[in-house]
Amino acid sequence: MIKQFDIREYGAEDGGQALCTKAIQSAIAEAGACGGEVYVPAGVYLTGALFLESNMSLYLAEGAVLLGIDSEDEYPVVSGRVAGIEMDWPAAVINVRNAFNVRISGPGTIDGQGEYWWKKYWGDDHRGGMRKRYEKKGLRWAVDYDCFRVRNVIVLNSENISLEEFVSRRSGFWNVHLCYSKNVTVRGIRICDNSGPSTDGIDIDSCNCVLIEGCQISCNDDNICVKSGRDADGLKVAKICKNVTIQNCTLFEGEGITLGSETSGGICNIRIINNSFIGTRNGFRIKSARTRGGVIENITVENLNMLDVAHPFLFQLNWYPKYSCCEIPTDYEGEIPKYWQALVETVPDGRGIPCVKDITVRRVTAVLQETYVGESEAFLIEGLKESPFKNLVFEDISIQAGAFGRITAVSNFTFHGVQYKV
Questions:
Q1: Residue (of 277, 314, 318, 284) closest to 299 by Cα position
Q2: How far apart are CA 305 and CA 275, in angstroms?
Q3: Which end of the chain has the smaller Cβ count within 10 Å, N or C?
Q4: Distance between CA atoms of 20 and 276, rounded to whole angstroms?
Q5: DSSP at 21
Q6: Residue 253's CB: how many other CB atoms inside 10 A?
Q7: 197-219 pLDDT tens trace
């Protein structure tokens, strides 16, 4: 029988006022030493960064809340990868680093108190903050890296990890980040209340053998995203993201299921099946840039149901140049961080052009309710002249949208049983 360690026995106090980080970390240390389970009972427990150990589990009971404190001092800066660049960044609320055989489960909640971090990025009115200051300086590409924000969960360099049932809400940055890890299952979690910038649901970053199943996700960016590094840094690291299955998920507000834009290490063997989209801005999305490079291949997308989705299919290989193309203004004065140097490093000729091939999409239905308001476009597929999409197959597709859209730079494109109606 697995030994259980109740955090209250180590001094954790309910109420969300007393900082419980040390108490909970003490319970983690004991559980890790004997393969036990840390038990978080009903109540609100204020905490900074927690670091789980190998061969242990963390259980969040019904009504339990791990409340991330909105104090930057409580999240030590640690090495890792953020938005495709290897750099130092604040630890998450829950950290699984260099570990194996770890499980996080239960119906309780991880609450990142994201409003503090969101205001830091874009101010009280969503049009100010660091974002506005950086855009004035011609540094749109840098603000996401300089504005250190805390994730709810990070799994880094780890193996045999299971995340099940819990709720992740109000994350300061990405909700769940899986990076450089193998054999990871994310099943039945719910991600919600994420109105802040870059509050991705689940990011799968240069991992191998990942199953995302039965999750419900609402956020303000990509609901689920598959990544593999950015530009020169990502090409050097060269870690592919492969063998990923995303199935039986329900996606609400957000940008849908995305491959990219961080594609430098390559993305292959991805299965996206039996998913529902309700009010997402996009359905299935591929994005990259002329500086990214990497090969995206062997992608299977089947049995998708979309309701009130503005862009069912959005593929762009020259996505968002203001963010994707990094250049330090000639009149810039100040320190240049090491990770800025990585971002502006020149990609060797030819290596920055991404290659996307062997994509099969079948059995997709997209409809709009009479109450739907806003633009809608069935297809926006924009390859590069020097690197068109290759071997795209669309079969048994039925889409209702305000416009058909456009398709450019595609080589060997099969349309079979595709219906479009206004």
A1: 284
A2: 7
A3: N
A4: 38
A5: H
A6: 17
A7: 999 999 999 999 999 999 999 99
Contact of 239 with 267, CB cutoff 8 Å: no
How much helix, strand and coil, in percent to the nearest 5, is found in the chain? 15, 45, 40
Q: What CA–CA distance (Å, rounded) separates 191 from 283?
A: 18
Cα–Cα–Cα angle for 119, 122, 124, nearest 5°?
50
Each residue's pLDDT tens digit, 248-285: 999 999 999 999 999 999 999 999 999 999 999 999 99
Beta pairing partners, 251? 217, 277
Beta strands in 20-158 (DSSP E): 37-40, 43-47, 50-52, 56-60, 64-68, 77-82, 85-90, 94-97, 100-105, 109-111, 153-156
67 within a domain of the structure (yes/no): no
Of 184, 416, 190, 407, whose CA–CA distance to 315 is shortest?
A: 407
Task: Give the range of the structural domain holding residue 183, as residue numbers without chain letter.
Answer: 43-55+78-420
Q: Is the pTM of this model over 0.90?
A: yes
CA distance 411 to 176: 36
CA distance 171 to 321: 27
Contact indicator for 121, 131 with CB cutoff of 8 Å? yes
Mean local confidence (pLDDT), 86-110: 98
Domain count, the chain: 1
In whole angstroms, give the CA distance from residue 288 to residue 45: 40
Q: How far apart are CA 363 and CA 284, in angstroms?
A: 13
R_g (Cα) of the chain, nearest Å: 21
Pairing of strands 77-82, 85-90: antiparallel
Q: Which residue spans within 145-240 are E strands per DSSP? A: 153-156, 159-164, 167-169, 176-179, 182-187, 190-192, 202-205, 208-213, 216-217, 224-227
How far is the C-alpha of 158 from the C-alpha of 80, rounded, in Å? 12
Dist CA 224 CA 202 (whole Å): 5
| Counts of helices then strands in the chain (DSSP H, E) | 7, 33
Burial class from Cβ neighbours inside 10 Å (0-12, 13-18, 19+) for residue 378 reads buried
Is the C-alpha dihedral spanning 133, 137, 140, 142 positive or negative?
negative
Contact criterion met (CB below 8 Å) for 296 and 288: yes
